[in-house]
Amino acid sequence: MKRLYSFIAALSLIVLSSCNNFLDMQPTNASNSEDAIATPSDAKVIINGIMRTMTSSDYYGRNFIMYGDTKGGDLTIASQGRGLDGMYTFNHSATSGSYSGFWATGYNCILQINNLLENIAKIATNGSTDYDKYKGEALTLRALVYFDLVRLYGLPYNYNKTSYGVPLVTKTLDANAQPTRASVEDIYKQVLSDLTAGATLLAENKKQENGYIGYYGNIAEQARVKLYMEDYDGALAASQEIINSGVFTLYTPDNWTASWGKQFGSESIFELAMYSNEADLGTSSLGYYLMCEGLKSGAAGWFMASDYFLNRLSEDATDVRWGVMGQDESEKVHLGSCYKYMGGTDLTGDGKDSPTAVNVKVIRLSEIYLIAAEASLHASTPNAAGAAFYLNQIRCRAPQLSPATASTVSDDMILDERSKELFGEGQRFFDLIRKNKSITYDDEFGGIAVTQRAKTIDRTFGKIVLPISQDEINANKALGAEQNEAYK
Asked: What are the residues whose beta carbons fall under 8 Å from the beta carbon of 306, sequence distance 6 or more?
C-alpha cells in the first residue's frame, strides 16, 4: 500500500519542532501523549512518516548518497556553481556550506522515533506483542540514522573512537535541553544496542520486507556497522546469516542492469520507497544530479564519474555495470553519467509515473557478499579462500577478469569491487577513510581550482568531518566548545 504521509496526520499524534534546529523545539509533552498512539496502525503511520523524512533531498533522497561518492573521488564536477560542488571542494565552514540539513533531518527522524518508542512503551503493557514489529523497526531505524550521523560528524571508529561523535538523544527533550556530543564509541555502542534489541523484536518475521526495514535489514545493518568497527567475526556471522537464509538472491550478470528499473527486487534488503505523487524530488533528485547536462529539462550535469572510477571499470569492457553508465558532457566518448536513479539509460524509472521517483536501495545483497569477503579475509581465523569465494560472486559481473583466488584476494581487490558495484550508492568515501587509504580527486576533469583541500588527502585531513553549523551552536552554546577541530 502506498505510504501516505503528511505532517498534518502525523503531527496530530506527535508534536515536532516548528523549525529545523533539533535543539530548538517545542516541548514534546505539549500534546496529550497518552492519545498519541491508539492502535498498531497508528504506529505504522509514524514509521511511514519517519521513512518519508529519510527520503528528503538532505538525506537519502540525494545529499547523503552524493556525499559518499563525491568525497570518495568516484564522482567529479565539470565546473563549479551548479550545486553541491562544495562537497567536492570541501568548501565547508560553520556559517557557510555546513550542509546542516544532514543534522536537522537526522535529528528530526530521531525525534519522531523517540516519541514513537515512548508512546509504545505507555500503551504496550500487560505482555502485549502487537507493537513489537514497529518498536523493532523504530530501533533499527534509529541505529541507521545514528550510524550515518556519526560517520558525517565523527572520526572513523578505528581511528579515534574517543573523539566527539554527535549528541546521543534517546528520549524526547524539553525546550531547555542542551545535550552535548557523545564519543564516537558511545554512539556505536548505542547503535549496536538498538540493533540487538530490534533484531529480537523482528525475528518472528524472517522474510523480505518490501518498503520496511525488517529482520534482515537489521542484520544487514549489523554486518555493516561491525565491519566499520573491525569486528570481522561479527560482520561475517551477520553476512552469512543473510546469505545462507536463501531469502535474497543475487542477480545474474544478464539481469543486473535491468534490476535498476525494478522495485523490491531479489537483492533488495532495504529500499526507501519513493512515490511520484509523494516523494518525487524532480529536478532535485539523485537521477537529475547524475545525468548528462541537457538530457532532460533541468539537467545540468552536476556530477559525473571521475577518470579514476572509469579506469577501474575499464578493466573489463564487458563489465555489466557499464549498462547504467551513459555519455556525459565531455567532447570525447566518456561514459561518466550514472543512471541507476533513473531506472537505467532509457530513463524509464522503476514503473512509476515519474522516472525520478525511483526507490533508493539502501542495503543490497551484493554489499553483504562484499562485507563477507572482507570479513573472511580479516576474521580471527582468516579464510582467504572464503574471501575469494564471496568476492567472486560479485566479481563475475566483469566476466573477462580472472576470478580471485586464495593467493590473490586482497583488501585492494575488494575495495575496487565495492567501488564498481556500489558506485552512486554513497559508500566510497567512508570505505576509504575507514581503511586508511588516501583519496585523489579528478580536478582536471573540469579544470577547476580547489583551494580548500589538496589534490590527495587522507583521514588526517580535518575536513573529512563536517562542521556543526552556527545555527546549532547558537541554539546550544555548549556545542561551540565541541566544534570539530578544522572549523574552530
From this structure: 73, 74, 75, 76, 336, 441, 442, 445
Rounded-to-integer distance, Cα 286 and Cα 309, Å: 19
Which has the higher per-residue pLDDT, 124 or 262? 262
Q: What is d(CA 171, CA 371) in angstroms, rounded to the nearest whole number?
A: 32
Q: What is the mean pLDDT of residues 18-24?
A: 38
Q: Between the CA of residue 255 and those of 252, 259, 261, 287, 444, what are the distances in Å?
A: 5, 6, 11, 21, 35
Question: Distance between CA atoms of 442 and 346, rounded to whole angstroms?
Answer: 28
Q: What confidence tier does 75 reach under pLDDT thresholds 50, 70, 90?
A: very high
- CB neighbours (10 Å) of residue 386? 20
- Interval 353-378: pLDDT, tens: 999 999 999 999 999 999 999 999 99
Q: What is the pLDDT of residue 36?
A: 67
| pLDDT tens-digit map of 416-446 | 999 999 999 999 999 999 999 999 999 998 8
pLDDT band at 7 (very low <50, low <70, confident <90, very high): very low
Instruction: Characterise 282 by phi-psi region: left (phi > 0), alpha (psi -120 to 50), beta (else).
Output: left
Report residue 140 as a C-alpha cell.
Answer: 533499527
* Whole-number percent of the chain with pLDDT over 70: 92
Q: Are 484 and 153 in contact (CB under 8 A)?
A: yes
d(CA 355, CA 343): 7
Distance CA 67, CA 286 (A): 11
State the average pLDDT over residues 319-337.
95
Q: Is the pLDDT of residue 202 over 60?
A: yes
Q: Which residues, 6+ apart, have CB-to-CB distance to 168 below 8 Å?
A: 146, 179, 182, 186, 187, 190
Of 79-83, 240-244, 449-453, which range is least confident?
A: 79-83
pLDDT of 117 strictly over 50: yes
